[in-house]
Give the backbone structure.
Amino acid sequence: MVGRRCASALIVVLFGCAEGGSLDGGGEAGSTGVGDGGAGPSTSTEGPAGPGSTGPGCYDEICNGKDDNCDGTIDNPELLNGLPCDTGTPGACASGTTFCDNGVQMCTPTVAPGEVPEACNAIDDDCNNVVDDLDANVVCPAQNPGAVNVGAWSCTGECAITACATGTSNFNGTLEDGCECATDNAADQCDASATTTVPVGATVMLTGVVETSGASDWLTFQFDVPGPTYPYHPKIELTNSSGGAYSLDILLDCAGNAAGCSTTGGANDETGIAANVWEQNYAGYTPGPGCCSDPTPRQSVVRVRVNRTTPPACDAYTVTATNP
């Protein structure tokens, strides 16, 4: 009977002290309490950390279909979604944001392939592995709506003006306003210049801009000759030189022969080279040999070379021809 009582007591001790208490005060918390100072097997309940803990067994949340951070939520959307990521696609479609889909981490592109049309900007906007594959004459005007009078565009990473419309120039070199300067349609060679007729009693004005240093515009005037006994007074004047930016040469022909001047009906005493005014004045005009006392050749066709004397700018000249 004694042996049975001892065995029963031992069973009670083993199970009764699981929470670290002692029986009879014989042992410390966590011991079996059998004997004086006898150490029994440990009964500690330390294990994986509880929900939301950062202790052992809990980790930073990742997209894997598990509750890694022990907060009771699998693949927390607020932690895993909407983060910057690389989609692996080219150009503008490379950037994206994360999205955890049933334990699989996805990267949703911010710009989907083909969603954005190609622009001239050295970027593959439509994500087809080709940069700036576009028609510059279509895309660049849309990118530069304020550019006027542009004849042709190119695109090499950025838009550029390669030609202006006839009679215009891009003096300031900017894209914003395009070929902003209205110049002229004047020829830059004598034999290519168009003829402008000046009827009797009429005044004709031609305005233009010489676009480059050392260049010239060529103008040709043909004065109608009045009938017998009428005075003939053809005159060409540089009425606007833009503050001395231009000068004139008045010539008989494209060979460079200067047209003589006569302001009083007498003989030549000056020429039209580097002049601001050229004129011939006949008090009375009678056709036929030996008809007049004025020996000056009666000039009806005059070639005018407009020379730029200052660096190029969008400053215009005006040449006025009169046939009173």
Q: What stands out?
A: The chain is about 10% helix and 30% strand.
